[in-house]
Amino acid sequence: MRRTEFRYREVEQHIMALVDGQAIKPGDKLPSLRALSRQLQVSISTVSQAYLELEKKQLIQSRERSGFYLSVGSQRLPSPASRPRPALVPTVSKRSDLIQTVLEALGNRDLLPFGVVCPAEELLPAGTLARISASILRTNPAQVLDYAPVNGHLELRRQIALRSLEAGIRVSPDEILITAGAMEGLSIALRALTRPGDNVLIQSPSYFCFLQLLENCGLRAIEIPSSTSGLDPQDVKKALEQFAIRAAILVPNFNNPDGSLTGDETKKEIVSLLSERKIPLVEDDVYGDLFFAEHRPATCKTYDKQGDVIFCSSFSKTIAPGYRVGWMIPGRYYGRALNIKTTTNICTATPNQLIIADFLRDGYYERHLRRLRSAVRNQMETLLLSLQRNFPDGTRAGFPKGGASIWVELPPRIDAVDYFFRAREMGIGLAPGPIFSTQDKYNNFIRLSCNGVWNDRMEKGMQTLGELAKHMLKQP
Ligand SMILES: Cc1ncc(COP(=O)(O)O)c(C=O)c1O
């Protein structure tokens, strides 16, 4: 087993893998604490802690003087299967009103946070950031008040260049442009690459802000399906053969909302298909660091030989969404991107750049990420088990390999927008499927976000959502 600071989580994952592989079935007895401790070479107390956690998730039950048993109803839900394929036609997004309503609800912190993709407050490194901030203010108060360079604070760009190696990107600090979150980078990229009326390739389902962005820029979306295994190069090829496509905007690593991961070889193929035709690719990697496997997935930028990929990311999903610190690697579009950045906001806010730079330089990020990933993965497991227990037959949901959201297919008769409004009335936030496509798709899908904590309120919320779904199914 791999050594981590959360050994009991590894024992948990070992058991989950046995459940997934059906090596143990509902009602079966689990190995004794002693046997598993010997087999995995961990202490008995580690195994005991893991069993306690699994019991909390209601995956296993202890029976007095007999040991632990796999609960009945503990098998995984099937992955969404009847995923509707989008029609291969250029479509103008008209989702802004619905998206705006959903965004207002997402911003409401009184709602149970299954609607917002953002780590829970207790998982954000507030204390460390406050200490760094105080130290910067003490040692160099004037620098904080000044403009930063348009392309961003040098130490931050250096740290990002260093971290990029893990994502398979070799880049010098001079090729990086600091932005106000990933969204600014994405917006700059589309403004640099397109003119109103152009076709842009996106995956389906896609992050709803992409749809708004296309709508605001007067662009038409060509949607290709995203599945559990990510994008299929054949779909990309077909779209490229049929339409004049100006640019693509994709999330190959843990797409929002379906969490799909496009394999590294496929990324390479897609980059080459687009590059051959000189079509730029805007790659959004905001979830790339939230992987659950041992290694980070590569990026499309990894395989970019000619600077055709504009890479965008941020620290919003990992360190502090409110700081609005992101970056882009615009490749051969650097000059145009810098120009647009200058006339948008001159530079990204100075104090936030300085603080994040020190956070990275002082080695806090890696440790923080390990804790965050483990918490998000753990909550995802609990949430999926809760879905399984509480939702009506016909509900489907896969277990993504990273990211922070679960894409749930409800039985077809449930209208997700109606479901969203009713859930909101009950104090529960979620995102309805139709906001993730320009076409009339995903009417019975919802996205549930994982912020990395699980509590009784959430368990009750899931029960309420399950009852609501069952109630809606009974309605004529
Ligand atoms: C795929 C994707 N890209 C971009 C963003 C926005 O990132 P930022 O807050 O850094 O602008 C989000 C936020 O939910 C997202 O899911």
Structure description:
It is a single chain. With 476 residues, this protein is an alpha/beta fold. The chain has 16 helices and 16 strands. It is globular and about 70 Å long. The structure holds pyridoxal-5'-phosphate (PLP). Pyridoxal-5'-phosphate binds next to helix 8.
Q: Can you count the helices?
A: 16
Q: What composes the largest sheet? A: 8 strands, mixed
Radius of gyration based on Cα positions:
23 Å
Distinct bound molecules: pyridoxal-5'-phosphate
- Which stretches of 5+ consecutive residues score pLDDT under 50? none
Average residue-wise pLDDT: 92
**Would you count the extended β strands for me?**
16
Task: Estimate percent helicity.
Answer: 40-55%
